[in-house]
Amino acid sequence: MQHAVRPRTLLRPGPTPAAPRPRAPRVRSLIDADALRVLHRAARVLLDDLPQVTDRLIAVLLEQEPAYRTAVEGDALATWQEVHRSLRHSISSLLDPRGARDGARRCSWKIGATRAEQGLPLDAVLHAFRLGGSLVWQGLVDETSRAAPEDVRLLVHVASDVWNFVDEHCTLVADAYRQTERQLAWRRENRVRLLAAALLDGTSRIADLPEAAVALELPEHGRYVVVAAAGGGLAGCPGAQAALAPGVRVHWHTGADADYGIVLVEDGEESIVQEEQAPGTRVGVGSAVEGLAAVGEARRLADTALTLCPEAGGTVRLTEHLPAALVASSPELGAALADRLLGPLAHLEPADAEVLLDTLATWLACDGSAQRASRRLYCHRNTVLNRLRRYEQLTGRSLSRPADLVEVSLALTARTLLNR
Questions:
Q1: Closest CA to 229 of 241, 219, 220
Q2: How far apart are CA 152 and CA 29, in angstroms?
Q3: Of 76, 84, 308, 399, whose Cβ has the fewest other Cβ atoms within 10 Å?
Q4: Is residue 2 included in any domain, yes or no?
Q5: Can you give the residue range of the structural domain that contains 335?
Q6: What ranges does the record give for the region Disordered, renumbered to this chain (predicted)?
C-alpha cells in the first residue's frame, strides 16, 4: 500500500507578481483526464462509505486532538454529524467542484463560527480539518491501490486539487472563527458596559446582579465606593486609573462628563485614591455603600463630591465635606440661602461687598480667630472685627449665635459653588 504523502510540488505558490502577463486558458492533458477519472472513481467509493470514513476520522481526532476529545464527550452525536457533513461536502467537491463549491464553503464557515462560539481553540479546529484532508487523501490512495494499483501514480496529477481545497477551507474556517470571535468579544464588552451603566444609573434589576458581579469580576455583596474622575487630560478609563492607589480592585466605566470607578473597599476609603493627582485632575470620592445594588446611590454621591472639587484640580472625599455636599445636592435651596444671608450686601459697592465677604470667609476658615484672620488678610485685628460687625449690622445676623453662624457658612459655600 502506498503512503499518503503530500508531494513537494503541492506547496502553495508565493504571491503573484504585479501586472502578470496574460496566460492562455489551461487545457487539461490526457494524463489529467485519466487522473480525474481515477480520482472520481475513488471519491465515489469514499462517498458510498461515508459513515465508516466519518468513524475513522472521529477515531483519529480522539487520538490526536485533545480539544476534540472534550467536544465528543460533550456531544458525541453533534460532533459526528459535523464531521460527516464536512466530509460529504469535501468529497462531493472532488466530484463536482463547481456545483458543490458554495455548499462546501457554507459548511466550513458554519463550523468555524460554531466552534468559536463554543470556545474550541482555533488551532484544534484547523488541525481537525487537516487531519480530515489527510484521511480523504489516504482513502483515495488506498481505494485506487485496491481497485487499480497501476493508476495510483496518476493521483499525483490531482493531488494539488485536493490539498488546495484543504488550504482554502482552512482559511475559510479561520476567517469565520476570527470574525465570530470579534463579534462575541464585542457583545461581551457591550454587555459589560450595559451592566455597569445600569448599576451606576441605579436601574439595574435585582435579577441581573449575579451576572453583573461575574462580568465586572466583583462580589455582589461587597462594600463599594464610586470614584468620579474628570479633567487633567484624562483620556478615558486608562487615564482615570492613575487617580487610584495601586492594587485597588475597580471596574471603570466611561461616562459623558467623567469616568466612574466602581471600587471594592477592602482596607479603608482613605487608601483608595492617590494623595496627589495630575494637575487639573478632579476626583470625587463618594461614601461607601453595601452591595452592587446600591452602586447607583454611590455614583450620585461621587458626582456630588466631584462638584465640590476646585477647577484647578484636587480630590474631595464626600465624608470630609458633608455640609458643602448638602448645599451642592440642592442648588435651588443653596441659592435661596445665599440670597437670604448675603443678599443685603448687594446694595454696597462691589469692591466693598467683596472685602466683607472675603473677610467673613477667611475668619470662618481660621476657626473664628480674628488674630489669625488678620495675618492672612494683612490687616489689623480690629479691622477684621469691624468688618464682621458691619456684616452683622447689614444683615441682622449675629456671628456669635450658632444657628446664624451655620447658615452663614452654608451661604458662603453656596456662593462659591454657584459662581463657578
A1: 241
A2: 17
A3: 76
A4: no
A5: 331-418
A6: 1-24
Q: Which of 177, 210, 46, 193 is nearest to 109 (CA)?
A: 177
CA distance 247 to 10: 55
Report how far residue 339's alpha carbon sits from residue 411's, in angstroms, rounded to the nearest whole number. 8
Domain match, 146 and 71 both? yes
CATH number, position 384 = 1.10.10.2840
**Within-domain flag for 214:** no
165-193 pLDDT, tens per residue?
Answer: 999 999 999 999 999 999 999 999 999 99
Give pLDDT, residue 243. 73
Residues 50 and 166 in one domain: yes
Which residues in the chain come in under a pLDDT of 70?
1-31, 232-240, 267-270, 275
- Domain identity same for 256 and 342: no
Domain identity same for 368 and 281: no
Distance separating alpha carbons of residues 179 and 377, to the nearest angstrom: 68
Its sign, for the CA torsion 411, 414, 418, 419, is positive
Size of the chain, expressed as the number of residues it contains: 420
How are beta strands 259-264 and 281-285 bridged, if at all? unpaired
Task: Please answer whether residues 316 and 283 qualify as being in contact, where contact means their C-beta atoms are separated by less than 8 angstroms.
Answer: yes
pLDDT at 30: 52
